[in-house]
TrEMBL record:
Name the record gives this protein: Dynein axonemal assembly factor 4
GO annotation (BP), single: epithelial cilium movement involved in extracellular fluid movement
Gene Ontology CC entries for this record: dynein axonemal particle; extracellular region; neuron projection; nucleus
Taxonomic source organism: Seriola lalandi dorsalis
InterPro entries to which the protein is assigned, alphabetical: CS_dom, CS_DYX1C1, Dynein_assembly_factor_4, HSP20-like_chaperone, TPR-like_helical_dom_sf, TPR_rpt
């Protein structure tokens, strides 16, 4: 049973009542205060203070301050009048019980109403934020569409202008060709008439029998027959890599190229929630470029969103996982960075020269995440794996030596980037 507090004090003015309740060593967080227009309760186990107020107060403007071992409750009066007493003087327990239950019920309804109002406000704010985000995305899509339309119109105009120039140039060449043919025909006609006139003159015939007559009667030379038609067989040398036969990795290279081709064909645009996206947003390569641009401007969250959507469309492109791991490193999502780097390394198989740089980057990113998680042994393994690929990288050599020093206890433990 709680202990009732009797050593309280109170003061009043025409408009306000002030009640001072000693807390007897209770902590601030353990004080429960309930205040209505006719009832006041201050409960701090095992002590309890109850006040059945003489006159009603304005509960909406009431306030309480707890500190320095005392709770000060301020109760504005509804009517500006001096009270004879703080509480009612009746000893009727049933009446007090009724007042208490009514006050507690009213307080619970007030708390419930405030909770509903708060939840409604949160829902409204969330809805507003969602609508704002959708509006921004719509504006971005419209802006991109306008850029595409403008670029399409520009390209179409350039193509039409080029076709017009080509047509005009062809007409000019045709006119030049016609003029040339006409001039050649006129020249040939003039030469022929001159030769016929010479051949019809007898003196010229006699004189020309030593040379000119043969020219007048000279037959055209026989032209060679056209060549027979046929097919030319073309063969191509097989694709080989510049390595010695005993070190050849042609099979692994061909397997990697085959995996790359399969990855490009593995786009899955049929996901239900992705059907409403634009054509660009259903293109993993376009999304990857968008993520790379966001990363370059330090907008890592937008870059992660772009890579997430690209991965949902195609889960076989290792660069998407590796680049998302770099974003997670910047955002300090270290476990996610380890997971994405491992996924990228699983896809970068078999290990060949074509994917060596990508494997080195994935090892460094996973090693950096391990080191920031203070798992230096695992991080050292990834840095050593990257060194096997790029053994002349001075920055990589320095980072690897720094991790060795940390493991051996000869250096501090900074976050390895």
């Amino acid at each position: 049973m709680p202990l009732l507090v009797t050593d309280y004090s109170w003061t009043q003015t025409d408009t306000t009542v002030y009640i001072h309740v000693p807390l007897k060593g209770a902590k601030v967080g353990k004080v429960d205060i309930v205040s209505t227009d006719e009832y006041l309760k201050v409960h701090y186990p095992p002590y309890l203070f109850e006040a059945f107020l003489l006159k009603p107060v304005d509960e909406d403007r009431s306030s309480a301050k707890v500190g320095n071992g005392v709770a000060v409750i301020t109760l504005p009066k509804r009517t500006n009048k001096i009270w004879e007493n703080l509480m009612i003087t009746t000893n009727d327990k049933e009446k007090k019980k009724e007042i208490r239950e009514r006050a507690l019920l009213k307080y619970q309804e007030k708390v419930s109403s405030e909770s509903r109002s708060k939840a409604e406000k949160q829902r409204t704010e969330k809805k507003y934020a969602l609508e704002t985000m959708m509006k921004l995305e719509k504006e971005e899509r419209e802006s991109v569409q306008k850029m595409k339309d403008a670029e399409r119109e520009k390209t179409t105009a350039e193509l039409d202008a080029w076709q017009l120039r080509q047509k005009q140039q062809a007409e000019e060449e045709e006119q030049v060709k016609l003029h040339t043919q006409r001039d050649n025909q006129n020249n040939l006609k003039a030469v022929t008439q001159k030769q016929e006139k010479r051949c019809s003159d007898g003196r010229n015939v006699k004189l020309d029998r030593r040379g000119s007559e043969a020219k007048c009667k000279k037959k055209p030379a026989d032209l060679p027959a056209p060549r027979p038609a046929g097919n030319i067989q073309v063969t191509f040398t097989p694709r080989v890599f510049p390595t010695a036969l005993r070190e050849s990795r042609v099979q692994e290279e061909e397997e990697w190229l085959h995996k790359q081709a399969e990855a490009r064909r593995a786009v899955n645009p049929d996901v239900e929630e992705l059907k409403d996206l634009t054509e660009e947003n259903r293109n993993p390569d376009w999304l990857k470029d968008k993520g790379d641009k966001c990363f370059a401007t330090a907008d890592y969250l937008s870059a992660v969103n772009a890579y997430n959507l690209a991965i949902r469309l195609n889960r076989k492109i290792p660069a998407l996982y590796s680049n998302r791991a770099a974003c997670h490193l910047k955002l300090r999502n270290l476990h996610k960075a380890v997971e994405d780097s491992s996924q990228a390394l699983d896809l970068l198989t078999p290990p060949v020269a074509a994917n060596a740089a990508a494997r080195a980057r994935a090892h460094v990113r996973r090693g950096s995440a391990f080191c920031q998680l203070q798992l230096y042994a695992e991080g050292l393994q990834d840095y050593q794996a990257a060194l096997k690929i790029d053994c002349h990288n001075e920055a990589l050599l320095a980072d690897t030596q720094r991790i060795r020093d940390i493991i051996q206890g000869t250096a501090a433990h900074p976050d390895t980037q």
